[in-house]
Structure formats: C-alpha cells, structure tokens
Amino acid sequence: MRRILPVGMNPAAYTRALNAFAGVVGKPWLFNTDEDRETYLDIYAPGDEERHAPSAAVAPATTEEIQALLRIANEFKLPLWPISRGKNMGYGGAAPVMAGAVVLDLSRMTRILDVDPKLGYCELEPGVGFFQLHEYLTANKIPLWLSIPGNAWGSVIGNALERGFAASPYGEHSSNLCGLEVVLPTGDLVRTGMGAMKGAKAGPLFKFGFGPSWDQLFVQSNFGVVTRAGVWLMPEPEATATLSMGLPNPEDLGWAIDVLTPLRLNRTIEQSVGIASYMGTATVSSQRSEWYDGPGAMPDSVVQAILKKYDIGWWNFSVRLYGGEGAVAANRRTVEDAFAKHTRREFRASTWTKGQPSTPRGGAPSPGVFPLQVVNWHGGRGGHIGFSPAMPADGKLVMEQFARTRKRYAEFGQDYSATFYQNTRHVTNVNLIIYNRDDEGQTGRVRGLFDALVGDAHANGYGEYRTHISYMDKVAATFDFNGHALGRLNEKLKDALDPNGVLAPGKSGIWGSARRPRPPAKGRGK
Ligand code: ADP
Fold first, then answer.
1. In the Cβ-directed half-sphere of 124, how many Cα atoms lie within 13 Å?
2. Is residue 207 lining ligand 1, measured as CB closer than 6 Å?
3. Where are the domains positioned within the chain?
4. pLDDT (tens digit, 9 = 90+) per residue, 186-235?
5. Is the CB of 82 under 6 A from ligand 1?
6. Rg of the Cα trace of the chain?
7. Hey, whose CA ends up nearest to atom 1 of ligand 1?
8. pLDDT average per 10 residues of sequence, the chain (526 residues)
C-alpha cells in the first residue's frame, strides 16, 4: 500500500523523525516497507482501509525507549498509535484512527514481572499475551485462573485497556487493572495509585491510591502509553458447575434476562451470562452457502433447519457457578428453580472439582482463537464489526432492542447475529455483523446498518461501550448532554497532557486542538 503521511506533515521532517526513531530502537525495529504497512492494516475493515492506514511502525523494547520515541514524536509533531499486540479484531485491529500515524508496537515487551499466588495478582508488560500468561501459570503450577476473551490472540493489558470482557467472575477486564506505569504523551513517566511512591509495596493491591484515581483515565483514552500494569487474577475455586440451555423462541430472551438479573445482583451468578442467537453456533460450524444462497436475511424455514441440525435453541446460554462444593450445589439449585418457573427444559450440567483435568466444561480456562471462524460465514476475505450498546438489564427493554435491531438487519439484508450479555445492572448487546470484505455491495450495506444502529441506540438513550476506529467520532457525538460537555472535558485534558496531539489522535473521538480535523471552509468542498 502506498504511504500516506499524516495531514500537514512535511515529508523531509517525516524522514528525519523516522531516522531518529531508528536511532532509538535500532533499524530492524522500524517497519517501513509497503509490506510492513500492510501488516498493520485493519484486516477486518468494512471497506475504505486507506482511511486508517499507518505510514510505518516502530517497536521499542523498554519504557525508556518509549519515552525517547515520544520526545521525538513531539519534536517532529508526528503522531504515534500505541498497540499492545494489535489484535483488536472488529474494532480496528492494529490500525490507527488517523491515516499516517506511526504504530507504536509494544509486542516485544513481554516480561511477566511478578505473579503472587497468595494475593492473586500479576504485573505485566503490555506485550504479554493470554497464551503466554496461561503457559506461565500452567508450567509453574500457579493456582490462579485467567479471564480470557473469545479471541485470545491479543494481550492481557491491551484487552483490558479496551474494556474487553469475558464470562468469568473476573470478566470485566478493565476492573482488574490495579496500578499502572504510564509514559505520558510528552515523555514523562508516572506510576498511579499506591504505586506512585518510591519503594511502593501496595501498588497492585489497592485500586485508588491517594487523591484522584487515574487508572481508568488511561482506559479507552489517548492520555498515555501503558508500559506496565498490575492485573488481578482469580484464585482457583474448589469446584464449578456449568449449566447450559437452549431456548426455542425469539421471545424467550426477555424472561431469561429477567430471571438472570436478580441472580446476578445477589451474586448467586458471579459472571457475565451471554445469551447468543443461533448464529453463534451456525457461523463457527458452517458457511451460509450450505444453508441458503438467496439475497437478504435468511428466511425462518432456514433458521429452523439450523436449529434442528445442531439441536440448539434460537437463543443459547451457559451459566457457570464457582466456589466450595456445597455453595456450588446450593447455587445450582437456586438457578435451576428460577428457570423451572418459566420452562420445562432442563439444563445440561457438568461439574468440575479441584484436581480434575481442565476441559471446556470446567477447570482453568484456556486460550483459543476458534471464534474467529465466524468470519468465514459469507466466504471471501471475511470480516466482522461489533456494534455494542450498553442498556438496562430489563427484559422488556431488551426485547424492544432485539426487535428494533433485528428489523434493521433485515432492512439492510444481513443475517441477524447478536448476543445479549447479562452484566449485572446492564446488558451489553454485542451485534456481531459479519461480511465478505470482497463484496463491496455488502460492506456498503453493513456501513449503512451500523449508522442506523448508532442512531437508533442514541434515540433510545443507549451508547456503545466500545467501537471501531471508523466510528469513534460518531459514537462520541452521541454523548451529548449539556452540549457535549463530556467531550469538552476530554479535549481539555488532552490539550493539557498532549499539547502537540502526538498520541493516538482521534481515539474514542478525542483529538485535541492540535489535530481535530476541521470541516471544509464555507463555499469550498462538498
Ligand atoms: P490486544 O493486545 O488485545 O491485541 P490491542 O493491542 O489491539 O489489543 O489494543 C487495543 C487498543 O487499546 C489499541 O488500539 C489502543 O488504542 C489501546 N492500547 C493498547 N495497548 C496500549 C498501551 N500499552 N497503552 C495505551 N493504549 C493502548
């Protein structure tokens, strides 16, 4: 792909900046060929990938190198886009919001600095992946469990910084962060919370420190580069029970959410419960052409054939319970009784106790990438994008959201595919919109669908919890209380911390005055 420089960048200054970068990291760690650039593109982009094409990438090995790179970036006003492992699939992968930004690739920083089995935490560098940490815990027989997202290819820290989540008691990943080390956009180095003291002993143990608490300000923002983080891990429980059920009708979603909500609020169930449409099974097990090759969304007769073949429900979910054997057995009865009031179906159950081997039905979770298979649904170069608003955990509102979005999928000729995650007080409705990137007609329709979903959610008072790089401005604009006061606050902070706007301009819709794209002057342009 041809090189695109950041808007306003002088080519000679750009070359000098890259040479200075190479001086810091060594030439082999500056990635500057056409092929290099391709590897950092969004491999799931729903069209228009040049809009987010990086101009190069640089991979430091230490915090000091990152500080030096940021000082150079400021000197030449060249934007950097930090990634940990760059596997943010469905949200932009490794690609920056702003075309021409240089990717700051931290995947060489893979040190596991500390693991404390007694207090249940570790300290990591940003390049540590789920696979690496899992292998470390297993090899060293450390009885701590990871909370792992469906696609485990990425890093523990990058996933937490994007508010990734998983079905486990520690599944709200940004909440597991405790004590960060951060290089600020000007190159200064800070440690947050209790770790902000020389010789600190409680950095990864107490989340808030003294005074304002900063950890969450570095999540989904562009206020700093996280170079190390304390991450809490779950101690191995005595036992688990896994209860799975398929619900036959689309209408079953509403009551199922209303049954789960009190069980989550009173902590009978301690993990997110994802209620997934049948497409969750169909897309990992088959291709669309095996079922239907007509235009538009699949008709109901085809849907029924899919349910029959896989012996699944329209909606499918699993609940996993954790604790001492007695507590798990008691909680299992509570869950079974609560569902028995609404359905004659029984849970498929499996149990695990300490000492037994780990399998997908119980024991320590292990990382995998199997769910990426979904992108093969349409054939061609597959991709997906996630539209994921957070909404109240209320069955009636959930049913309305389902009906509204399903209608939109049909309007834009897409097969409905979504999961409703019961996340205690809110439900996160992850719409996994799947497409063939080689089918321009389809990617165009997907973009239309996405715009419609953003508008519908906004009209109903719901915002996305996370979004793709192409939609960050659009989603940020939906947070419009008091004339976008939150956006103004974010921009004020950005200007104070990053006066040259060199760190991840545009991330979460935050640009800073130095970089905010200006609308074309009146009378010019379209
Ligand atoms: P993963 O490691 O899970 O593949 P990514 O590296 O793709 O995740 O990171 C997801 C997003 O989080 C990035 O696009 C970036 O905005 C942000 N991010 C990742 N790592 C860092 C970091 N170390 N410091 C600051 N922001 C980061």
1. 28
2. no
3. 11-105, 112-235, 239-472
4. 999 999 999 999 999 999 999 999 999 999 999 999 999 999 999 999 99
5. yes
6. 23
7. 154
8. 90 98 98 95 92 97 98 98 97 97 98 98 98 98 97 97 97 98 98 97 96 97 98 98 98 98 98 97 95 90 96 98 98 98 97 94 93 94 96 98 97 96 98 96 97 98 97 97 98 98 98 86 51
Alpha helical stretches, state H, 266-371: 279-285, 300-310, 325-340
83 CB less than 6 Å from ligand 1? yes
Residue type for position 113:
L
Q: Does domain 112-235 have CATH number 3.40.50.720?
A: no
Q: Could you tell me which CATH class the domain 239-472 is placed in?
A: alpha beta
pLDDT of residue 317: 98
- Counting runs of H as helices and runs of E as strands, what totals does the chain give? 13, 20
Domains 11-105 and 112-235 agree in fold: no
Over the stretch 418-475, which tens digit does the pLDDT of each residue have? 999 999 999 999 999 999 999 999 999 999 999 999 999 999 999 999 999 999 999 9
The atom number, within ligand 1, closest to the CA of 224 reads 25
Q: SS3 of 6, please?
A: coil
Helix %, strand %, coil % of the chain (to 5): 35, 20, 45
Residue type, 227: T
State which CATH number among 3.40.190.10, 3.30.43.10, 3.90.950.20, 3.30.470.20 fits the domain covering 11-105. Answer: 3.30.43.10
Q: Please, what's the b/e burial string for 288-301 (b: 16 or more CB within 10 A of its CB; e: otherwise)?
A: beeebeeeebbeee
